[in-house]
Amino acid sequence: MSLTDTLVELINIPSVIGNEEAITTAIEFRLAGTRPQRRLGNALVVGEPTGKPLIVLYGHTDTVPEQDNGAASIHGERVYGLGASDMKAGLAVMLHLLEDEAILDGPYDLTGVFYDKEEGPMADNGLEDVLDAVPWLADADFSIVLEPTDLNLELGCNGAMNADIVFTGHAAHSARPWLGENAVTKAGDWLAAMHARRPEPVAIAGLEYLEVFSVTRASGGIANNVLPSRFTLNLNYRFPPIYDLEEAEARLRDVASAADEVVITDAAAAGTIPEGNAHLARLEDLVGGARTAKQGWTDVARLTGRGIPAVNYGPGEVAQAHQRSESVPIENLGIVFSILERFLTGAPDVE
């Protein structure tokens, strides 16, 4: 089966977050007999250590909800469908690498981790349970998360934090606003400052990350003729790997100091760069081009937080993720497969 055929097959197995059982079972059945397997709910670990250097590939099986794009189709040189770029293209490459006889007989122990619930809240992410249940994954010499990277090798990743930013006032009849305080308009100066705020570049190890604060939701008021006494906004903060969670929270609270109340609702640490790792240097040579920073959050952060050296490298296109017309170039599948096959068989370079 070709990489394209595999991708089409994966897209045509619905796996919206929370419904990953069918796709996990299909992967389990396809890879049966190739390597030892361990099923953990709707996650699957394929491979185990035998004493050779251990390299682990990671891919989430879930997608965001459908937007009338559930079925796969091919138009020109692209495959379309839900999850095409994020990240069933990466899963297709993983499957073919795990089936590759040259890799099986090569110098490394290769393991693939297929996990669920990545597209939802951080606390529900299925990878956390896998890492707890299979402690030897922490012994990996190198790990690769096959999220969309536009064929770039992306190092580290920004952390993510969300907070309720609350402005409080005093309710009153809208015909007599001077008897109260409008919580919505009280937030006006702060919102104007946030609107004008530009991303802040932060240089780390020759890479440029962007520190970004974004207001993404707002709610307040109980009726058209009542001054709102409470106005709540969600502030989404993407912070570079120079800050830990405590430092990131301090920066968010400083930015939101004009508010009456700040409540942190969700937080995930940034991913670090595995500098000095020999496998990273080898993969960089194979991929070619300049190393880049990962602006979004990925499970590289979850891995590096446990001391596991990990990077992002996959065939999907970042801009296609979660799009109604989501697609991926067919050639990207072959490029990533070829590079990782050479990486996993110890080939020193690419043509």
Brief description of this entry?
The protein is α/β, with parallel strands linked by helices. Helix content is 29%, strand content 25%. Helix 1 packs across helix 3, helix 3 (84-99) runs parallel beside helix 11 and helix 9 (278-287) packs antiparallel against helix 11.
Number of strands: 16
Question: In which range does the helix fraction lie?
Answer: 25-40%
CATH superfamily of the largest domain: Zn peptidases
Distance between the termini: 25 Å
Structural class: alpha/beta
The name of the CATH architecture of the largest domain is: 3-Layer(aba) Sandwich
Q: Strand share of the residues? A: 25-35%
Oligomer: single chain
Biggest β-sheet strands, sense, barrel: 6 strands, mixed
Instruction: State the order of secondary-structure elements, H for helix, E for strand.
Output: HHEEEEEHHEHEEEHHEEEHEHEHEEH
How does this structure look, described?
This protein is of the alpha/beta class and 351 residues long. It folds into 2 domains: 3-156 and 271-344, 3-Layer(aba) Sandwich (Aminopeptidase), CATH 3.40.630; 159-268, Alpha-Beta Plaits (2-Layer Sandwich). Helices cover 29% and strands 25% of the residues. The chain has helices at residues 3-11, 21-30, 84-99, 101-104, 126-133, 183-186, 188-196, 245-255, 278-287, 300-304, 330-344, and strands at 37-40, 43-46, 54-60, 73-75, 78-80, 109-115, 142-145, 154-155, 159-168, 200-204, 207-220, 230-239, 261-268, 292-293, 310-312, 327-329. The longest helix has 16 residues, at 84-99. The chain is elongated. The two termini are 25 Å apart. The model has no long low-confidence stretch (mean pLDDT 95).
